[in-house]
Amino acid sequence: MQPDCAGQLRIVLIDDHALLREVVCEALNVEPDMVVVGVAASGSTGILHCDIKQPDVVLLDGNIPDESLTETVRAIRSASPNARVLIVSMPDDPALVRQLLDCGVRGCLNKSASRTDLVSSIRAVCADNIRIVLHVSVEALTHIASTADCPDVLTRREMEILTLVSKAMSNRQISRRLTIAEGTVKRHLGTIFTKLGARSRLEAVNKAVSIGLIARAG
User: Fold this and answer.
1) What is the pLDDT of residues 100-114, one digit of tens each?
2) pLDDT, tens digit, for every residue of 148-196?
3) CA-CA distance, 11 to 56, in Å (whole number)?
4) What is the dihedral of CA 159, 82, 20, 31, to 10 degrees?
């Protein structure tokens, strides 16, 4: 049965741990201005909830196994364009934080965040359309600030391509994954090399990893 949530912030929670789902739901549902309208254990199910419920906020576990966090975020924002996405239990990876912000995430909270931090972050990102909440380490914030001030920072598409290059994918494989022409991939790589001052794919990847633009492939 659909809850009566007029005037409340509607929240969808996506987390693969049942106990954490229960605890977070209980913590949020006691807030007078919040109600959890959907709960999911996987990104794919969560995306369906977002499509149907059209929530104000999506709380997405940053450690969902076997799923690409950035791809899940993009799918959520496609299904529910007005939802503010907050990543919780976020791995403190500066490159990943930067990628998520580029995808439109409105906040990242690492494992040390408290219930109070979570509740205040939800209210903060819903207060306007520009506020971003970061509960991450000083190191991560430093990396994000330094790359944001760089005039030659890579575009979102260039980041996507370089991330796939770091996974040893060929131009043809990248073009198929991103549904773009192989020639377009080559042109983007040329721009990437120029911006990073790199002469090869490996050098470009290593430089991007060193300044926190992308995460090193596992």
Assistant:
1) 888 899 999 987 888
2) 555 456 787 888 899 999 999 999 999 999 999 999 999 999 999 988 8
3) 6
4) 140
* 185 phi, psi to nearest 5 deg: -60, -45
Confidence of residue 47 (pLDDT cuts 50, 70, 90): very high
Q: Do 85 and 60 contact (CB within 8 A), yes or no?
A: yes
The pTM of the whole model exceeds 0.70: no
Is the pLDDT reported for residue 2 higher than 50? no
d(CA 122, CA 106): 10
User: CA–CA separation, 156 vs 96, rounded Å?
Assistant: 13
Three-class SS string for the chain?
CCCCCCCCEEEEEECCCHHHHHHHHHHHHCCCCEEEEEEECCHHHHHHHHHHHCCCEEEEECCCCCCCHHHHHHHHHHHCCCCEEEEEEECCCHHHHHHHHHCCCCEEEECCCCHHHHHHHHHHHHHCCCCCEEECCHHHHHHHHHHHCCCCCCCHHHHHHHHHHHCCCCHHHHHHHHCCCHHHHHHHHHHHHHHHCCCCHHHHHHHHHHCCCCCCCC
CA-to-CA distance for 136 and 140, rounded, in angstroms?
6
